[in-house]
Design goal:
It is a single chain. This protein is mainly α. The protein has one domain. It has ten helices and no strands. α1 runs parallel beside α8. The chain starts with a helix and ends with a helix. Pfam families: LysE (PF01810). Keywords: Cell membrane, Membrane, Transmembrane, Transmembrane helix. It is found in: Cell membrane. This is LysE family translocator.
Length: about 210
């Protein structure tokens, strides 16, 4: 079991550090709203992963592989959400003043960051497919499927929290430059384009 956990941890770590929507979301949230909201966005992402792990352990994510309609519905919903995030970021970049919206440490902003991280992850069908296809390959013969799947899910969540925590720390360290109005607008524009790109890619993939 220890060998299986270590092997899965190595594979999951590689998947985790590949830049994607989650990393960009946490980076942007931290740069514009501060450490607390950035961390909450990361917790939202991790919560989504834990939900996917539980669904995978219960066999629910097999529906995504077996049903084209179920996968497409979730894929289109996720694409629309990413397009909305991207459009909102580009709209924010056009505004001349964002002080009221981006005040760090506000409770509403923290709750919004947590919710956005959670919803963004839950609407990504690729996460479900990853859990459904990868977790069973690492479960040792004779090991309890549900318990082992949840253990792997917790390992992945811990790695994601560590990685996103490092993203937050690195972003805060560079926040002096990132907090400049021109740089902040550019960051909003870049992340907006990236979100829209991810959304379009998710929408057209088969």
């Amino acid at each position: 079991m220890i060998t299986a956990c270590l092997t899965f941890a190595a594979v999951a770590a590689l998947v985790t550090v590949v830049p994607g929507v989650d990393t960009m979301l946490v980076l942007r949230t931290t740069a514009t709203r501060g450490r607390r909201t950035g961390l909450l966005a990361g917790v939202g992402v991790a919560s989504g992963l834990l939900c996917w792990a539980a669904a995978s352990a219960a066999g629910l994510t097999a529906l995504l592989a077996a049903s084209r309609i179920a996968f497409d519905v979730l894929r289109v919903a996720g694409a629309c959400y990413l397009l909305w995030l991207g459009g909102r970021a580009l709209w924010t970049a056009r505004r001349k003043a964002h002080d009221a919206e981006e005040a760090p440490g506000a409770d509403v902003s923290g709750a919004a960051a947590l919710r956005i991280g959670l919803v963004s992850n839950l609407l990504n069908p690729k996460v479900g497919v990853f859990y459904m296809s990868m977790l069973p390959q690492f479960i040792p013969a004779g090991a309890p499927t549900f318990g082992t799947s949840m253990l792997f899910g917790v390992i992945h969540v811990a790695e994601v929290l560590l990685w996103l925590g490092l993203v937050v720390v690195a972003t805060i360290a560079a926040r002096g430059a990132l907090s400049r109005p021109a740089v902040k607008r550019r960051l909003q524009q870049v992340t907006g384009v990236v979100f829209i790109g991810f959304g379009v890619r998710l929408a057209v993939e088969r």
